[in-house]
Structure prediction request, 851 residues.
Amino acid sequence: MHAANKPTYMISQTNLSTSFQEYLDSGYWKIFFNSFSQLGDDEVLNRKQDMMRFLKENGVTYNIYGDPLGFNRPWKLDIIPFLIGKEEWETIESGLIQRANLFDLILKDIYGERTLLKNGLLPMEIIYNHTGFLRQCAGIQLPGKHHLVLYSADMARTVDGKIWVLNDRTQAPSGSGYALENRLTMARIVPELFNGLKVRRLSPYFHSLRNALTGIAPTNSKEPRIVILTPGPSNETYFEHAYLSSYLGFTLVQGNDLMVKDNFVWLKTLGGLEKVDVIYRRLDDVFCDPLELKEDSQLGIPGLLQAVRRGNVSIANPLGSSVIENPGLMPFLPAVAKHLLGEELKLPSIASWWCGQASALNYVLDNIGSLVIKRISRRSNVSTSVDATSLDSNQLNELKARIKTEPHLFVGQEKANFADSPSLVNGKIEPRDALFRSFAVSNNGSYIAMEGGLTRTSGEYGNYIISNQMGGISKDTWIISAEAGSTFNVRKELEHVQENVITYKSEVLPSHTAENLFWVGRYAERVLGNARFQRTVMQFVEEANKAFSDNDETIKESLLKALTLYTHTFPGFTGDDGEKKLKEPWEELCEILFDAQKIGSLAHNVGLFNRAVYTVRDHWSTDTWRVLRDMEEDWQKAIESPQTSHHRIIYALDNLITSMVAFIGLNRESISREQGWTLLNMGRKTEQSLLLINMMRVTLVQRHDDQIEYILQEAVLKSNECLVNYRYKYRSHLKLSLVLDLMLLDPLNPRSLIYQLERLKADVSALPKLSVGHALPEHERLALEAYTMVKLAVKEKLAEPEKNSSSYKNLDIFLTKMNKLLYTLPNVISKAYFMHAQTQKQLFTANNLDR
Prediction:
């Protein structure tokens, strides 16, 4: 296919002209490389770094399954785009539209009359043995002219200049959001490369997508409720799901955000249930309804298929459409196209042989060493493609044996000689195989194609199997036009984002999103509070507080035990080997900081925070993402680097604290004061209150020597950034009653308990009212009771020691009761607003079951 040794070339125009002459001979490539060369080698590499930084700061990621380092891996984009000329695009565009129409007719036939099977145009084994064929979907009538709303195809250009289709994507095609992000990134970072080229815009496709989804709504509403159904943040393309949600103005939901009631689909929101009209799904169809399809699915909505049958909700693409995402169909498409359309295929499929036919099986077995072997359907996340040319004799024999056992499940495909595409790799221009994916969407009785798409190149030279999961690199795809009117303009593209969004409505949060925002607030404060207290304890332990050298060991013991109790990292310094750890504390202190597997550790809480943040990623601004990614990288470096110095450990804590303060501050300034802010702030205030109460319980309740109590009180103030406030306000030595006055009762101190509770009470009251009447809901009653309890507290009484007792009993009783109230409050809120537990009605009647 390619020469054994790959050619590499520096960026300069001189070297380029000797190796990629075919590109320079093409007018638009020549224009591009002239602009590219004018940047200069150093500037090209600088722009490449800028592009990587821009994508990272925008939170553009791709998850790699099974790779511990693959969660939220930064998206890779080549600075050299994939260019397609006007004439070539006209062929591709008409071919895409034709194939979309063809597959729409095939889909209707498979779940309708099945004439293709009856007339022998399609073998039954290809359909009925495909995991995507869902018998439960047979006979369902769907609205609109097209059942197949979305279609995409993976294409490649061979060395003779022809375009071939390698894969058809009909279930939940991915990549359109990444294509748009690639375009905006290129326009922002290297706008000079567009000079002299009339590059077509992508936004018309998304406008048509919006219209198509609106058009399949069961009702005639101009603004139907449309949601994007995602498997969740662990999905490989979750970034795209969140990105499209923001761009199109549709609500991003997971399966547990939706429920079926009375044969309608309802969105669980903070204000109750809202009817859903259209679901744009990014979830494999078999997972969508555990009641009728995959019964162990935790991702779907029980009863969804019945709501579809009743015509009460529409899904794009419809359930069961993955059956035509089937390489086994390719050998039969020319005949099917002739039968259904009366036309030859304008975009031919790569030469394919279905092994269910004896002659094709023999050909595949005889020529297997030169073919690519595919299964007709996927198994879990295992790749369905095997490049047999890369296998040794034993591996080929094993593959042959598998094919002979179940020949109807395998397809052999020609390994075409793809044309190389220039790519910038490690500072040099190298040839790479390229796979181009474009998209078509239903539009006014026909289809419209995206004038661009997502191009992926192999991570290694000569690698035929191109996949993001295997380290592929993306390219922006430019369709070069002769007409200036439709050409790309970054200002117009960005303006279209605003045009695409629905007319403003008050924010309606799905319950799952609201819950995650609540927990983002809690985890943010938990990380910040734990980091500050751990830093304070470490500083005291390191310095040994020379001012009271006689009590150093007792002070150290008290602080370290308090740290274990505060962080709940048991047994820690309180266990059977506590005495040993107290003498040599730094190993345990490092575990409490950096061991992500240790429940309660700072690293564990940082992990929980990151997962919650990514789950609601569409709520964060670009500046916020910059802070988050820098914090994530800095903390990971701290975990991985050997901690040889206590100062380095404390420095890592300082960086984490600064980043978390920046995150909280940015959201305080940028999030709209609607439901999202209310939930985030409520989580923060709840956690701040609980952390303060817990810190006081583990440090101030027990009585100690006066000098030790002084240090413990100082630790509380220092951990809460209130030591300066204390000295400024009281101008005296530390005294328990005054510490309690500042930390519990002072309404002007933003770290005090009453300050948190006053705002928590307001946030709780701002939640939607779910019941009618004058009685306070339980969550409002709990918040009011906690607030009133603090208002009625008397600092002198709380600081009064109990005679013949080792504790401040009044303070202990007060903090214990307050702790119980505030631990109960989130559970009550969760039950009322996040779960929406309701009595379910029977989904089917006896008549339905008999049909």
